[in-house]
Amino acid sequence: MTSKHATVRDLRRTNRATVLSRLYFDGPLSRFELSGITGLSAATVSNVTAELVRERLVVEAGQVESDGGRPRVLLRVDPGYAMVAGVDIGETGVKAELFDLAMNRLAAVDLPLPSKRGNSKQAEPAAVVAQAAAGLREVLAGVDEDKVLGVGVGVPGTVEQEPVRVHAQTIGWHDVPLADLLCEAGVSVPVFVENGAKTQGQAEMWFGAGRGARHAVILLIGSGVGASVITDGTIYRGSASSAGEWGHTIIQYGGRRCRCGASGCLEAYVGGEAIVERYRAVRRGKAVAGADEQANLATLLVAAEKSKTAARVLDEAADHLGAGIANLVNLFNPERIVLGGWAGLAIGARLLPRITEAVRTQALRRPFEQLTIELGKLGPDAVAVGAATLPVAALLDQRGTR
Amino acid sequence: MTSKHATVRDLRRTNRATVLSRLYFDGPLSRFELSGITGLSAATVSNVTAELVRERLVVEAGQVESDGGRPRVLLRVDPGYAMVAGVDIGETGVKAELFDLAMNRLAAVDLPLPSKRGNSKQAEPAAVVAQAAAGLREVLAGVDEDKVLGVGVGVPGTVEQEPVRVHAQTIGWHDVPLADLLCEAGVSVPVFVENGAKTQGQAEMWFGAGRGARHAVILLIGSGVGASVITDGTIYRGSASSAGEWGHTIIQYGGRRCRCGASGCLEAYVGGEAIVERYRAVRRGKAVAGADEQANLATLLVAAEKSKTAARVLDEAADHLGAGIANLVNLFNPERIVLGGWAGLAIGARLLPRITEAVRTQALRRPFEQLTIELGKLGPDAVAVGAATLPVAALLDQRGTR
DNA sequence: CGCCTAAATTCAAGATGTGAACGAAAGGGC
DNA sequence: GCCCTTTCGTTCACATCTTGAATTTAGGCG
C-alpha cells in the first residue's frame, strides 16, 4: 500500500536500516562519522548503535585518535554474526559457496549437471534442484543452521517473486517454483531466488566495479547475454521482475535468428556461443571442434593475433556489442557500465578500447561523455557472490521490520 | 543527503503529501475513505485535512449519505487555489496554455517560430525564448501573478537540472540555460523545464492512457522520436536526466543514417519526418511536395488505402516500430505502453494491430503477455498539459517542505 | 422526540528525534 | 603530577508525531 512511513515507529526502522547499511558498506565508522553521514543527530546514532551492539550485530573495532580529544571508537558489522550461502545455477553446472557476513568465502563446491545434449532440454529442473541441494549440503556440513541467514540462488532466466516462479525460455523452464522445490529437497534455511545477471550485478555494485555509482548497468556476457540495470542504487525489476533482458533486444532488424525465436537479437551477435559459432561458420568447420565454449573462445582470442579471419570475427562482435551498449546508454543514461561474464571478461580484456570507441560513435554525445566503461572486478564467481548477498540485503533493510 | 526521513517532523510532511496527492488524483474523497487508502488513522487524517482546509488548498465538496449514519463529507483540492502555465516548445512553433489546478484549460495561444530553413540551425534559443515569453504574457494577461504556481516548459531535447541546461543535438542547442533566459525575458513566476517527451508522459500518466499503471513507457512519435519511461510511478531520468532517448537506439546496425550522426537509429525508420521522406524516396519525387509534415503523413495514410507502395512504406514503419517497442518491453518489462505524438497517433489509429503483432513476434513471450499497448488519450496537446503539471508536482510533494 | 448508525473530532498515551547539558577519554603544557 | 583543552559519546527534558479509545456530531427512522 502506501509502503512509505506513516507511524513514528517506522521512522526508527528506517534509521536503524540506514545506520546498519552505512556500517556494512562503508566499513568501520565511529559514531561521530555516522552522525555526519546519515544526517542523524549524535543522540540518535548513540541510541541506534547501542541497540545494534546489544543485539550483537555490530561490534567495536578499535579506536582512532583524533588530534587531541577523546579517541573515536570504530564500529562495524560483525562478520561472524551470521553466514550466507550463494548458489550459481549455470547452463552446464552448479556452484555453491558459503560466506560470512563480510563475504569472505568459507567454503565452495562445483557440481556438474548431467549434460543431455541429445535431449532437447538441457537441464531438467529436478536434476538441477538435486545438484543444488547436494552442493548446499556440502558447504553447510557441520554448520549450525541457526547461524545461516539464508541461501540465495542465481538462475539463468527471469524470476517472478511472490511466489517465486522461474521462467527461462532458452533452457525450457516455465513456471518453475524453484524455492519450493529446494525446500522439498531438504533445504531448511530461507531461500531467495533471483536472475543470475541481477545477482552478478548486485555483487559488482556492492564489492566490485560498480561501487559508488548510483546509476549503472552491469553486463553479463556468457553463453547468453543478460544485464542488470541499477537505477538510483537499486536493481530495476519492472512490473514482473523480467526487466533487463538486454540480450534479446534487436540491434539488427531482420538479422540472424536467435534461440529465443526472434531475429537480430544482440545475443545472436555477441554471446559467447554465438561468437564461437560464427567463427566456426566463417572457417567452414576447419576449426574449433571442442565442446567447451570457454576454451573455444580462448582459442579464438589467441588465433586473432595472427589470423585476420579470427580478428574480423572478434572485431565484428565488439562493434555490435558497442551498438548494444550505446542503446543502454541512450535509454538509461548510466554513469558506469561494467562488462562481466566469462565471455565479456575475455573479450573485454583485449577489445575494451574498440568496444568503447564503438559506443562513442553510436551513442548520443552527451550521455557518452558522462559514462565510464569498465571490466568487472569479481570474475566469474560474481553470480554466486551476488546470490549470497540476497539474504544480506534482506537483513539490511528488514532489520527492525521483522 | 540521506534524503529520506529522519526527524519526526518529516513524517508529518510525508503524510501531508500523501493525503494531498490522494485527494488530487483520486478526486473527491471523504476523510473516512482517505484513512483507508493512505493507511493512516482517522485521527491523523482529520488532523492533516484540517490543516489543508485551513490553508484553503482543500475544500469541501458535497456529502454522500452512508446508509443510516452521519453522511461523509467529501473533500477535494480546490481547482481555484492556484493556476499553472504550460509551454510546449516544438521544432516549428511554441504553444502556451494556462490551467487551473484541476487542469481545466483557461487560455491557450499558438505562436510560430521563424523558420530559417536556409540556415542549418532551425531555431535560435533567443528567438524561441522571445516567443515563449510572448505567449506567456498573452495567456497570463490580467491574471494575478501570486495566483500562478509556476510555468512548466517542455523542450525537444534533454534537460539537466540544477542548474537547468538544455541540450538538443538535433536542433543545435548546447548548454542552453533556458530557465534563466526566460527570467531575463520577463517571466516572473517560477520556471520548470523538462524534456517534452517526459512532460507528455507525465500528462498521460496523470490524466490519460497511463492512469493506474506503475510501470509504463509513453512514446512520443512526432517528427523525431522520444519516450518517457515510468518506473514504479516516477519518471526515470538516469544520472543526468537524459535517460529515455529511445529514438536514437539502434535497431538496424549499419542502417540508415540518422540526423544524430549514428546509423540505424529507430528515429530514422519510424519518425514522422523519416516516414514521409521514405515515401518521397520510394516514389522518386512523384509525390508530397508540401512543407507540412503532418499534412504529408495524413496524405500518405489516405494513399495507403489504394496504393501498394504507400501501404508498404507504412507497414515497414510499423514493423520497425514493433522492434523498437519490443526492445522496450524486454528491457523495462512495463505493464503498459502508450503511443503518442502526432505521428504516433496518426499511424497508430490505423496500424495499432500490426504494430502489436510485430511486438509479439519480436519480444520475449512472458513480458509481452503482461503488456497492453494503447493510444494516447490526450492528443497532441499532451506536451503542454504535462509541462503545466510540473509546478503541480512540485506543490504535491513539497507541501510542508517549504 | 428519542434511538440508532456511522463519520469526524478530541484526548491521553506511547514512541521518537533533537539540542543542550553533562560525562568521558585522551594529549599537552607547566 | 595536575590542570586545561579538545573531541567524542551519553543523558535528559522537551517538542512533535501517530494512534486507539472515548466522545461528539449529523443525519435517518420509528
Automatic annotation (TrEMBL), chains A, B:
Listed InterPro entries: ATPase_NBD (IPR043129), ROK (IPR000600), WH-like_DNA-bd_sf (IPR036388), WH_DNA-bd_sf (IPR036390)
An MF annotation (GO) of this entry: kinase activity
Gene3D superfamilies noted in UniProt: 3.30.420.40, Winged helix-like DNA-binding domain superfamily/Winged helix DNA-binding domain (1.10.10.10)
Keyword Calcium: no
Keyword terms, alphabetized: Kinase, Transferase
Superkingdom to which the source organism belongs: Bacteria
Coiled coil: none
Family per similarity comment: Belongs to the ROK (NagC/XylR) family.
Name assigned to this protein: Putative NBD/HSP70 family sugar kinase
Protein's organism: Labedaea rhizosphaerae
